[in-house]
Amino acid sequence: MKKIILLSLFFVFAFASIVTAQTKVSGIVLDKSNQPVPFANVVFKGSNIGIVSNEDGRFYLESPTTYTALLVSSAGFSDREVPLEKTVNYDFKIVLSEAEALNEVVIFTGKTSKKNNPALDILRKIWERKRKNGLYQFNQYQMQKYEKVEFDMNTIDSAFMKNKLFKGMEFVFKHVDTSDVTGKTYLPIFINESVYDVYGDNKLKKVKENITGNKMSGFNGNQQILSFVKDLYSDYNIYDNHLKFFDKSFTSPLSRTGIDVYNYVLKDSAFIDKKWCYNIVFYPRRKNELTFKGDFWVNDTTFAIKKINMGVTKSANINWVKDIYIEQEFEVENDSTFLLTRDYMMSDFALNKKEKSKGVYGKRTTLYRDHKFNIPKPEKFYKEEVNFIDNAVYDRPPEFWEENRFEKLNKDEAGIYKMLDTLQTVKRFKQLYSLVSILGSGYVEFKNFDFGPIFSTFGYNEVEGLRLRAGGRTYFGPNDPWRIQAYTAYGFDDNKFKYGVSGKWMVDKKKRIIISGGNRRDIEQIGASLTTTNDILGRSFASSALFTTGSNGKLTNINLSNVSVEMEPMKNFVVQAGVSYRTLESASPTFSLDYYTTMPTAANPAGVVASAVKQSEANIQFEYMPNRKTIGFGVERDLVDSPFSHFFVNFSYGLKGVLDSDFAYEKIQLFYKQPIIIGPLGRSNIILETGKTFGTIPLGLMSVIPGNQTYFTIENTFSNLNFYEFVTDQYTTLQWNHDFGGRLFARIPFMRKLNWREFVGVKGVYGTISDANRAINASGQPYNAPENVYWEYNAGIGNIFKVFRIDFSWRGSYLNTPDANKFAVKGSFGFYF
């Protein structure tokens, strides 16, 4: 959601004038029946500067050099030369004639053949050599890298500029330019520059990037902006079979499976930098798939790519993104080595894909230079620092940037720094920024203090009735070494106040040694999740959802205190140890946690029953998240939205007698989540949870299989189970869910335009209860364990109106259980690309 919220802030700024270049031309390519010709090749005559028209036949082309003619060609049509009488030519209509069989040599029309196609012969040779090209030829490599990320507003007309919304901010409209890809006017509003030293070892399969400088204009230090930038642009290799953008897997035009989804046409050949190269045009075989259209030049001997241009088709099943355009250029290091020197990517974000819709450009330019090869480094050199902190990196003088920029900023880019510094002093802008910040983070910002999260304000359950919650946190900046958070809540039916307070302090920044502690007195739905933590301020949706199915009165009064220390001895490996003390007692007269302290006998048939649990516990946990990416280096960090494996182990020890604690036990819990990207078939998640408690414990300390009695999809719960339907002291759950990303619906003509996405999944649980734990149960709550394996399966449709997903879930076993919920419908909202 934060991505769309941030983009909505950008949408409020714009401009109207146009800065001209030497030659500009835009238009549409049509056939004689006035139908668009998609993926036509449009080139300035006498140059290698060209573009492929989109699926609607539209194109835009620009060059700082003056040209007098265009060459337009497409498979199945006669080539046409179009004179350019002016340097700026808009709304050209170029009509192509079908090729005459007697006079024209036409190899392919429409869908190209997979047999006897010279373009495919070249493609196969690219596959053979791709692991021998570029940096892969060397054992080790070093280079310098410069990266520039920019956001620009586009397509906002003069009427919008005159809106009262922009009163006092009119000066921003002086910074205007025109895109050389789309031809739209745009206003730069954000720029971030970074310089890196890059080291790689192909034998060790290790890469390390040391940042040496970073400079950002506007929104300085804003964690969510930085996180959005990192989310937006992931690294990719054009030779890979699939390229990941916006959490989606696109089939590369150089992929071994490209033959199945692309048409390829050998269009031309020419010398480029004294190397003979072939030009191949590619375009999709079908609509709505995650593919590109464009062309590339490839060397005739090494079969290394010299230059590639490609754009995502408008029909691709991706939200909020109207265009993606990519350019890569390779330079010849020697006769056999082609090295990537320039990588440019531009995305056009918009609320819809209409041609004149307003939007935001996100542009990344990456340049490489000073390559060195076969200089080995020890393996420990590539060990990533846990918490890189070098404030000098973010405060480099102007002289550093003059020396280390690989290319100079243009006048508009250079003006962004001053313009945005000025903009942030304007009262009107501050108000707009604050509003969007509230929606994005959930907090209302004050000086050194944030109020919220506001989305947790209202709740409801059968014990408290309507529940109001208010809280806040200290906030001096995104890299605070300490933070205090607190909240209070009030239930209008039980007429009681609840509260929680916690604090964290990072005492060692290099190893991220953090001391934390807190106390919470509240009402909670025990069993909302299997893998438990001692998070003081964790919010239970099960006990505070506004709408639920069935009764949600099986709630517990909890008083939890916790002290812990954690450290990160190596990147993404976290160790935490702590002690906690909690009391548990039923919050409802219709629900009991009672247990026997003395078993019934003939002399005392009622036994001795206790209603409250007092428990001291020590625990140590290990968490490993390879490939996790984070933003910032404070006591709290934001995650970059990219898939990563997650492995978690927790050992707990019940300390009987400590602070009058009631039980002695040992508990082990394991959680493992593995995302799997299956190329064009989408992404799967495999989740395993298992645990066992050794010792005798009451209901309040048992492992309850998490049900879901809300109307919303909640991860790691069972949609067809009610609370406390299954109780265990040892358990194993396994679930698989898969997102096809719309690939199946894209093959159905009448559903293609809906851009819906398909989800399927199945989950199951096995668990047991020891005889000793059954014996002390005096709660009246039946102890049922899924000893015969409970399982359920689901199918869902997502991307409905771009924000809604609906899941249908069916119970697969225990169908004869009284009041069994055999079928459930859940929904969820979210903003997805």
What does this structure look like?
It contains 10 helices and 44 strands. The protein is mostly beta strands and 833 residues long. The strands form 8 sheets. The protein has an 18-stranded antiparallel β-sheet that branches. Strands 8, 9, 10, 11, 14, 15, 16, 17, 18, 19 and 20 form an 11-stranded antiparallel β-sheet that branches. Helix 1 runs antiparallel to helix 8.
Q: Keyphrases for this structure?
A:
mainly beta, 833 residues, 18-stranded antiparallel beta sheet, 44 strands, 44% strand, disordered N terminus, elongated, eleven-stranded antiparallel beta sheet
Can you count the helices? 10
Alpha-carbon distance between the two ends: 10 Å
Helix content percent band? under 10%
Residue fraction in strands: 35-45%
User: Gyration radius, to the nearest Å?
Assistant: 31 Å
Q: Helix- and strand-based class?
A: mainly beta
Major sheet details: 18 strands, antiparallel
Mean pLDDT: 83
Shape summary: elongated
Number of strands: 44
List unreliable stretches of 5+ residues.
Answer: 1-21, 100-109
Outline the fold blueprint.
Layout: H1 2-10, E1 23-30, E2 41-44, E3 50-52, E4 58-63, E5 69-73, E6 80-83, E7 88-95, H2 118-129, E8 140-154, H3 158-161, E9 177-178, E10 185-201, E11 206-217, H4 223-232, E12 242-245, E13 248-251, H5 258-261, E14 262-272, E15 275-284, E16 292-299, E17 305-312, E18 321-334, E19 337-350, E20 359-373, H6 398-404, H7 411-423, H8 427-441, E21 444-446, E22 449-451, E23 458-461, E24 465-474, E25 482-491, E26 496-508, E27 513-524, H9 541-544, E28 556-570, E29 573-586, E30 595-598, E31 608-610, E32 613-624, E33 630-631, E34 638-639, E35 646-654, E36 665-677, E37 683-694, E38 703-704, E39 727-728, E40 730-739, E41 757-768, H10 771-775, E42 790-800, E43 804-811, E44 823-829
Parallel strand pairs: 1-7
Antiparallel strand pairs: 1-4, 2-3, 2-5, 5-6, 8-10, 8-20, 9-10, 10-11, 12-13, 14-15, 15-16, 16-17, 17-18, 18-19, 19-20, 21-22, 22-24, 23-24, 24-25, 25-26, 26-27, 27-28, 28-29, 29-32, 30-31, 32-35, 33-34, 35-36, 36-37, 37-40, 38-39, 40-41, 41-42, 42-43, 43-44
Helix pairs in contact: 1-8
